[in-house]
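Before relying on records like the one below, remember that each one covers exactly one chain. Contacts with other chains, cofactors or solvent are not represented anywhere in the record.
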Amino acid sequence: MDKKDLLKNILNKNITLIDYENIRDKNGARYLGFGKFAGIIGCYNSLALYEDFINNKKLLRAFEINNYNLLKNKLRDKKFSKMKILITGDGRVAKGAIELLKYTNINQVSKDKFLKKIFNQPIFCNLETSDYVNDNSNNSFDLKHFIKNPTKYTCVIEKYLKETNLLISAHYWDPLSPKIFDLKNLYKFNKLKVIGDITCDINGSIPTTLKSTSIKDPYFYFDKINNTEIQKSKNALAIMAVDNLPSELPRDSSEEFGNSIVKEVLPYIIKDDDKRIHNATIVKNGNFLSKYSYLKNYILN
């Protein structure tokens, strides 16, 4: 059964269809999502790739450990060598990545220190959206304005990438938003060895992401001169771009999602809805709600 037939059956049987991942608060933030564990596992995979590619050392895969608490305990015993990590984003995914790093010997530093100071230990810096994009009109950064008008902004992350060894992209990206970098400028970032692209948009904000990868085969290698995939070599850029990261720790990620449903969804379905459920409802009583009425044309074509 394809998507059109599924929608037709839902309409015919008067099924209520709610998009749980689109249940949002008044500011548009999602109540539910697997973003935290995408960040946690994406960060772990990125560290594992760096260890393998740069230091020729292996870390157990997250799915082999299969337990978040055990994974954290293993990281407490692991001493990472000197490197500079840059994490982009200020949502669930970025917070998940930062949470994981708290269980390592990798300490957070300010943006200024990241750019100017030499470290003899591993460190990371987190850039929020306002840190890496500028309004072309030189107005003060406003997140709502950026979300509504992404074409009016320019990415200004280059000075940070010049100091970065491992980039972990954990930000939300709109196709109309500026890319984090342009391939023609990749030569400028000679310290950059590994990219963990948790956003995983093909040729999206991270243009070296030529493809998504799998849990079984999570990495590939990028030729910085010809902009093509190549075999592993010391001159390549190593890429992690798994597109179903939470599946590596299915029990932990599902448990968190389920707890969020119990807290943020069920009370508003059973009792009084503060409109969070209504606004995320696609079909009710055999009809599309007005917000999703455009789907009528979709199922007819």
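The chain has a mean pLDDT of 94.
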